[in-house]
Amino acid sequence: MNEQIDLSSEYELSEAQIEAFRQDGHVYLPNVCSADEVAYYRQAISDTAWQRFPQDKRTDRPFLQTLNLRYHCPKVMQFVLAPRLGKIVSDLISKPTASDPDRQALSVRIFHEQALFKEPKGGLTPWHQDQYYWPLATEYAVGLWMPLVDVPLEMGPIRFATGSHRRGFVKQVAISEQSQDFFQQFIEDQGYPIWQREMRAGDATLHNGWTIHGATANQTDQMRSAMIVTYYPNGTKVDQLSNPSRVNDAKHFLGGKQAGDLADSQMNTIVYQAS
User: Fold this and answer.
1) In angstroms, how far is the first alpha carbon of the chain from the final one?
2) Which range marks the domain in which residue 98 is found?
3) Does 6 fall in a domain?
4) pLDDT tens, position by position, 166-178
5) What's the rounded Cα separation, in Å, for the pair 244 and 108?
6) Which candidate, 153, 148, 144, places its Cα nearest to that of 223?
7) Is 121 exposed, middle or buried (0-12, 13-18, 19+ CB in 10 A)?
8) Could you read off the pLDDT of 30-69 as tens digits, one per residue?
9) What CATH number is attached to the domain comprising 220?
């Protein structure tokens, strides 16, 4: 059981999954964590999150959010720094494939993690690009989204505009009604297909930092709980702090590093060391 709990065993990716991630900007991976593993970590994540969620729980929030849980619970630390997850990210961004044989394996650091709990009848999560927030000068920042409970379509799983990462930065707009309206029109104009599916607890999606994504409303009477972890390749530098959110993220998740610095603060542990 210890081998399962510490998430040290590898999750084998197929070349098709790696190619899908690079082409589409996202990939769905079933059963990244087993039922036993999810059960072990779910209680620790939930307990820590509920202690730290904002107390002004407004009904108009798209979700309840709290970040950097790992500093408040050893089990959460163990989960987000799991070698299994870091190796998945490294393989997706850097493992050589038949169509791209010259890539070299990259080590991976953690940027931050967050618990996102969407309450019963909670509204949609607007379309947005994560890298509007992340001040990381790389095309290989990756977000992992893992539900801690089974998420049918009516509960509002994550959704992606397939291929949108290839456009890179689109607009300086934070997640909001404005971003929903702007990106909805942009997605329609560009003809990006929308990907969404039901997910089981322990499944995961991984997406590029520029991939436009969001989530539909939780139409059920159950809480939709998920854990999100963000990773990036070792050697990445801090990008321009071009909006207040990036200034805040550099302060709180990159140890106060400034634009042009290596993103290698003590907060940003190497999760997977490439050989």
Assistant:
1) 27
2) 17-272
3) no
4) 999 999 999 999 9
5) 26
6) 148
7) exposed
8) 999 999 999 999 999 999 998 887 665 544 556 788 999 9
9) 2.60.120.620
* 85-131 tens-digit pLDDT: 999 999 999 999 999 999 999 999 999 999 999 999 999 999 999 99
- Which residues make Cβ contacts (< 8 Å) with residue 67, sequence separation at least 6? 112, 113, 114, 252, 253
7 in any annotated domain: no
pTM to 2 decimal places: 0.94
pLDDT tens-place string over residues 74-88:
999 999 999 999 999
User: Is 167 among the domain residues?
Assistant: yes
pLDDT above 70 for 4:
no
CB atoms within 10 A of CB 58: 7
**Average pLDDT, rounded, for the chain:** 94
* Dist. CA 68–CA 30, nearest whole Å: 25
Residue 256 resides in a domain: yes
Structure tokens at 182: 């702007």
List, as one string, the DSSP characters of 155-174.
Answer: G--EEEETTGGGG-------
Q: Which residues does residue 231 pair with via DSSP β-bridges, in sequence order?
A: 110, 142
Helices 15-24 and 83-94, packing angle to 10 deg: 70
- The answer to whether the CB of 179 falls within 8 A of the CB of 7 is no
